[in-house]
Write a structure and sequence with these properties.
By secondary structure, the protein is mainly alpha-helical. Helices cover 63% and strands 0% of the residues. It contains nine helices and no strands. It is elongated.
């Protein structure tokens, strides 16, 4: 995938990494990966502002590793939001994670199109897609969609869903604005 967003902030070069740079990543990656190659371009860009990275990354780690959402629901939601925010970097980096969470190539294509019903008649997945689209389009989940989600998710899961969508929308905006390039480029 090519990056359609201009590079504005390059990853911090390895020669400029210091102990506080590596420490800023501690909530998300193990110490042995706290270097440019191990951290990847998005984290290597975020550590240009270690205090911000240290504040933001524990929240992102919660969304990715500790939320009440199943990995499948999380990936359905975040793939939809990063697609809606035109973030190729996060889309491509989450495809293997989504597949590990049980999403098929057909599911992934349907998430991009916004309609999983033709591929998988799972009402939870459909409600999650509707919730993501509501949040992206209107900044809130409509009452009918909220009520449908309530038949499949607990209140805590619905809260985690809202924060997952918002968290990945924020990250997609940052990645696009900074012009983070895929490591394969």
């Amino acid at each position: 995938m090519s990056n359609r967003h201009p590079l504005r902030l390059a990853p911090l070069p390895g020669t400029e990494w210091q102990e506080h740079t590596r420490a800023a990543l501690a909530s998300l990656i193990p110490p042995e990966r706290a270097h440019p190659a191990g951290a990847g371009n998005v984290l290597s860009t975020l550590v240009r502002h270690p205090e911000l990275a240290r504040a933001y990354l524990p929240f992102n780690a919660y969304l990715l590793k500790h939320s009440t959402l199943s990995p499948r629901i999380r990936e359905v939601a975040l793939l939809r939001v990063v697609h809606r925010r035109d973030c190729d970097y996060l889309w491509s980096h989450h495809l293997p994670i989504a597949r590990s969470a049980g999403l098929t190539d057909g599911d992934i294509a349907a998430i991009r199109d916004g309609n999983l019903a033709d591929v998988r008649p799972d009402l939870t997945d459909q409600a999650v897609l509707h919730a993501v689209d509501d949040l992206v389009d209107r900044g809130t989940i409509s009452t009918p969609v909220w009520n449908t989600l309530g038949r499949h998710l607990t209140d805590q899961q619905r809260m985690d869903l809202v924060f997952t969508v918002g968290g990945y929308e924020l990250l997609a905006m940052a990645v696009n604005t900074f012009g983070v390039e895929d490591e394969a480029q």
